Amino acid sequence: MSAEKSRRLYIIGAGFAGQTLAEEIKRKAIFGGVVAFLDDDPEKIGRKIEGIPILGPIRDVARLLHMNPADEAVIAIPSASREYLTELYGILQKAGFARIRILPGISQIIEGDAHLIQTRSIDPQDLLGRTPVAVNLKQSLAYLRGKRVLVTGAGGSIGSELCRQLLSGGAFRLYLFGHGENSIYQIDRELRLLQDEGVGEKATLVPVIGDLKDGNYVDYILGKLKADVIFHAAAYKHVPMMEENPVAAIENNFFGTLNLIKAAQRQGVKRFVFITTDKAVEPVSVYGVSKYLCERLVLDAAVQNGENSCAGHFMVVRFGNVLGSRGSIMPLFQKQIEKGGPVTVTDPEMRRWFMTIPEACSLVLKAGGVGANGNIYLLDMGEPIRIKDIAEQMIRFYGFDPEKDIRIEYIGPRPGERMDEFLWSGNETPAPTEHSRILKVEQKTRDALDLEALTEALRPICNFDGEKPEQYRDSALLRELLHQAIPSLIMPASGGNYGT
Length: 500
What we know:
Strand order of the largest sheet: 10-9-8-11-12-13-18-22-21
Helix content: 25-40%
Mean pLDDT: 91
Number of domains: 2
Number of strands: 22
Distance between the termini: 58 Å
Strand content: 15-25%
CATH architecture of the largest domain: 3-Layer(aba) Sandwich
CATH class of the largest domain: Alpha Beta
Number of helices: 17
Structural class: alpha/beta
């Protein structure tokens, strides 16, 4: 018997998601079959679905199971709370399952079919933070039906998840824009495989390799693609690295966004959604400043469009950290745990707001449809979480005891980091909207920043100007200009001019 056929599957949850998975497994004749559903619902326990018994309660049954070496469990309860998932994971671990998988993201399968290809091994982000809000994607994405949709940074953590969820939107074309060939290849291949397995609808996928820093190219390609909607997720995001490469941060994030906005206006893009960060609020780092300036660019474009109903709607969606992104602490902690520690934490009291990538993206997509021109929308992030607590939870997830088995080492904040982030500034007030977990940020006054003058002052630093050759890549001058315009930016006590 093949290894694949020797694997037996237990589906945790006998609801619509679990039943759909069982039907698919039977139809494709994969695994050694579904042995049973495990469920806690007394009305389901004891029944059969297509000949498969429903056993429960889960805690009691799991103790009686006799696992084969390759037996697997799939948690198919998309509405499960974080607390319940944590309990289930502990039960299934003790039962001895070789692998525990999960259907991630209720937003991706609510009121739709669940597919085996959507499952993945459970990891810490599934058990951390709050229970994600349920978003009806098909309803939320109705505004994209038949449209041409472009996602910048489509190969990144946020951009790729936007693309996965956009498969459910009925878009006519989905443009996957990025400058990393390999990451765009990977998300393009993944989306095509998802489509082949029946996930979402048959949007035409178009991978596009390009660089937003090239204004002529951006204008050219938008003219060719004729995108109706843009979700702008592309950015350099690593705070300490951008502190060492400040010119690159402004060149890519600020001037790249400026090029995209100008091209979108010229080419008649109807909806432009800019994804920003809490680090743009009273920014202390060059990365934060770059995103703050981009927020201003988007709001200025909205003012230029005014009340013209034929012009595009430009809006900003701001949120904090996301769990499990490439640049987040979780992949780093995982590698540190795998090698036996120590796990490095900046400070025992450092806190951040966290949200899962699927939840953040589903709310971004929803805000893009309901948002009005010139508004900043803020995702409700709940309460901030201590980085130390996340480190301890991850150590326990992998079966170790914090400090006893894996040591936590406190290394102090890195360049550009602060102890706490803020979701709005003193000049802003968040107001509820009719949509759960989406707030509207109302600005009391408009700051006096002369963005046009600052742009022109920064330009010869990022782009060579024969009349000002001495300014090219002058990071010290760039920092000084940014600090004069945005005094919250912290200037380094010392350091050379890295020329980047």
